[in-house]
Amino acid sequence: MTDFFHPTTQILNELQETVNLAEELAPPPSSQPISEKIRGQLIPSLYEARTYIELGYYESPTVDISIKKSMLIASDLRDQDFKYAPLFSKLNILKELTTLISKPKITGE
Q1: Which pTM was predicted?
Q2: Under a CB-based contact definition with an 8 Å cutoff, are residues 38 and 22 in contact?
Q3: Residue 61: its pLDDT value, please?
């Protein structure tokens, strides 16, 4: 199996794409509330989740909480302006991937 198809690699790639999208959608750094939500809250939450994922702690509550926090922020932004809908969608995909990988594996005996 190549690294591209390894679950960790897939999640980390999806996470980085999500961060890149968030940075593209964020207004220039300033005192704007939207910029603060994206740069000051959403992106740091994703980096926090990434740290745990890189260490292999998929089941850590921090991963789930960080992604859900990011989703809540993106949902609020989407409600204000629909241009943030793709960001929320990417976060939803990321949440699904992390949920799948953190589920206990059932092995046959």
Answers
A1: 0.83
A2: yes
A3: 95
